[in-house]
Amino acid sequence: MRVLLIATNREARPSYAVPAGVAYLQNALLEAGHEARILDLCFEPDERLGPLVEETVREFDPALIGVSIRNVDNETYLRYRGNLGDVRIVIEACRANSPAPVVLGGSAFSLMPMEIMKVLDVDLGVVGEGESAIVALADAIGKGEAIESSPGLIRMVDGALVAAEPARVADPASIRAPRTFVPDPRYFSAKVVGPQPTYGIQTKRGCTFRCSYCPVPSIEGKRFRLRSPVEIVDEMRHVRDLAGVRRFFITDSIFNLPRRHAIAVCEELVRADLGVSWMAYTNPLQYDTELTDLFKRAGCETLNFGLDAGCDEMLTSLQKDFSREDILNATRCAKQSGVRIVHSLLLGGPGETAETVKSTLDTMAECQPHVLTIAFGIRLYPQTPLWQSLGKPSGDVDMLMPLFYVDEALGGDECTEILQLINTFIADHPEVMVRMNFDQNKLATEVAASSLRVSATQG
């Protein structure tokens, strides 16, 4: 049967993201004997969303339509932009031109499936990983059988939503690289996405860590499921040859752990000699120059350390498993090996003060990363430790609204002091490129007055 998969993500910051996850679904459907097409809306202007969906649905005539939701919003406090309006346009265009059932999925959908289904008035959704789920659903619909046993299915029954356990790919060897999906060349055009276009690839799924605000364990599971290094490199080779891609983004929440797996992937890359470079998210644990030298030989160009803080007090508050000393050691090792360093901070968490920000910036001054990104405010998601610590069941608030955590002690005066600390750091360290996701001129007043805030004492 024919299945249309629609990738709705159009978020451009920090860069456009190739819908590789949707391509995995397409591959699974094709291997199961179905006909599957991807409609990628990333570069479509607002006025073309509805008409393009209508044209595609009428021409392809699918028996099932999957709509992927990668981001609920841009996760940026004070510069908030929601994305569900685009999804609503897509769904309405599908319904107006086809009787095919519409099923929602994607990483963002799995975070808040009930809320999203209700606000978009959709009767079917898939929570978790979609490869086996979309095939089971297509098989059942194609054969005219009941769909209840499809993995991860959420459906409307007698006016109420009924949910199965999240779908998981038990055997990572079954995750096969897409073979027919050709990404839009604009994803790799420097004129569109900037000087460093990339293709995202995962070497594993799941995460064993419990950072207080992070929803990855609830989406992908709380243990690592490792892909074969040979399969990973084969996928990179295929994408390189198919689309001329020479730069990849390893999008694991943490690439370097388990260490043995990261080493195996890099050794396979060295053997393959693909002539590509890559960047990755990483954790400062278990670093030495032997590891970073191997990364460099394997093509590593940039490591993005999602530190969030640089002082032990805030690292503990955010439930990080590493220390300030780990940060200094990992940075030193990577720089000695000639790898570009990005350190990312997330200010405003529980216990944040001007003094903790000063301590964090002191660590950054010692590290001297090539790039330092600074975000303010933590987007709250259900099923995360931070959300649970607030004592607020998800039914109490509209989670689809832009709800962020900012410590209640951070008022206008404290924010002004924090801005002074950041600006002093910038002036004292011109060699560090600092990027902020907020308007310095508005931070103090908007944080003090914003209705988006919640405090750890509420609930």
Short description:
Helices cover 38% and strands 18% of the residues.
**What is the domain total for the residues?**
2
Low-confidence stretches: 455-459
H/I helix tally: 17
Strands of the largest sheet, in order across it? 2-1-3-4-5-6-7
- Overall body shape: globular
Helix % is 25-40%
Q: Look at the structure and give the mean pLDDT.
A: 88
- Give the class from helix and strand content and strand pairing: alpha/beta
The main sheet comes to: 7 strands, mixed
Number of strands: 19
Our Rg estimate from Cα atoms comes to 22 Å
Q: Find the CATH topology of the largest domain.
A: TIM Barrel
What is the strand content? 15-25%
Identify the CATH class of the largest domain.
Alpha Beta
The CATH superfamily of the largest domain bears the name Aldolase class I
N- to C-terminal distance:
49 Å
CATH architecture name of the largest domain: Alpha-Beta Barrel
Described by its quaternary structure, the protein is single chain
